[in-house]
Specification:
The chain contains one helix and twelve strands; from the N terminus they run αββββββββββββ. Strand 2 and strand 3 form a beta hairpin. The model has no long low-confidence stretch (mean pLDDT 84).
């Protein structure tokens, strides 16, 4: 009888432990925190720890305290942002619903004007590797962007079609 009681007590203790370990704390953010849109399309954490939230009415950056909204006035290609990706060395790439792409540089976004880059698949069209090369999935095929580190007077990336 005592052995049965110990077995039941041991099973009860084991079942109770995972229940305690599964508790998560959630916090809801809204307009009072600077997040005007409650429909995130994509979320990306950058190398600096900022959380970026893509939404139908802009891009938001969360610094741990509040959200800051970025829009077309900050260089975004459109307000409806659907894709986010960070490449080396910490460059944030955004894709708009129309397939235009921009990269963050010096606090602003610069729309990529290269004719090879139009349009990029909006939902999952940007990737990169450890060397800093960027891969863009376009309607015409894969385009590779190689960083230009040698000449600061030239565009930051050189784009060409994948072989």
């Amino acid at each position: 009888m005592r052995r049965s009681f110990l077995n039941i007590a041991a099973i009860a203790a084991l079942l109770a432990c995972p229940a305690l370990a599964q508790r998560y704390a959630f916090k809801q953010y809204g307009p009072e925190h600077g997040l005007d849109n409650q429909v995130p399309v994509a979320i990306q954490q950058d190398a600096s720890g900022f959380m970026w939230v893509a939404s139908p009415n802009g891009l938001y950056r969360y610094d741990g305290y509040r959200f800051r909204k970025f829009s077309v006035a900050d260089g975004l290609p459109a307000d409806f942002i659907v894709g986010l990706h960070e490449s080396e060395p910490g460059r944030l790439w955004v894709t708009a619903i129309d397939g235009k792409v921009a990269v963050r540089s010096g606090g602003r976004f610069i729309v990529i004007q290269d004719p090879l880059v139009k349009p990029v698949s909006p939902l999952s069209g940007v990737s990169s590797d450890a060397t800093g090369r960027v891969y863009l999935a376009t309607a015409q095929g894969l385009v590779i962007g190689t960083p230009n580190r040698a000449d600061p007077n030239r565009p930051a990336y050189r784009f060409e079609r994948a072989p």
